[in-house]
Amino acid sequence: MKRTVLITGASRGIGAAIKTRLGSEGLTVLSPGRDELDLLSSASIDSYLGSLKSPVDIIVNNAGINFLAALEEITDENLETMVQVNLTAPLRLIKGIVPNMKMNRFGRIVNISSIFGIVSKERRLLYTTTKSALIGMTKTLALELGGYNILVNAIAPGYVLTQLTKQNNSPEEIERISSSIPLKRMAEPAEIAEVAAFLCSDKNTYITGQAIVVDGGFTCM
User: Fold this and answer.
1) 94 lies in which domain range?
2) Which of 129, 143, 159, 216 has the fewest CB atoms nearer than 10 Å to its CB?
3) Active-site positions?
4) Cβ contacts of residue 136 below 8 Å, gap of 6+?
5) Is pTM beyond 0.90 here?
């Protein structure tokens, strides 16, 4: 059976790598742009869900944003935006898609969290709050949906060498961060995509409710 996967945030970085990897498996890949699916708007999410012509068997909630701010710097707009994109939008998409998964008694849900949903550092208050909540959502949904053969997992990537990483960090900064990782390098987006591909596949028959850390050993220190 040819299955359909919905991937958010698939225009670049980890999302683009997941799109390429799952496409290579012969899946029908839906990767809407912001003009089709605006995660900042619950109305847009509901409209997109209503426009789907066929059931979605797999969803990868990859899109996310990160405003760096200490407690005193957080604005109401930052708070509302990050909660909406990083937490509310994934939950709303899952809620809209799950009924068909239940009917078909098959589903794979993968939420892209972060190592900063497990550990944290200064000025990551909102990011850690939303990404750790995403892991909590994953665990609860795994309990609620397991009886329908719907497996729900999160991936918590560490430092990944995306184009955005290269734009935001000098070569010297990338080298400094890489030297702090036990494997002495950042991950390639394709390495995260390999984990996602397994979790989304029929090969995954018994892993659910987990946050799979892919960080080269960074959180072991």
Assistant:
1) 4-158+189-215
2) 143
3) 127
4) none
5) yes
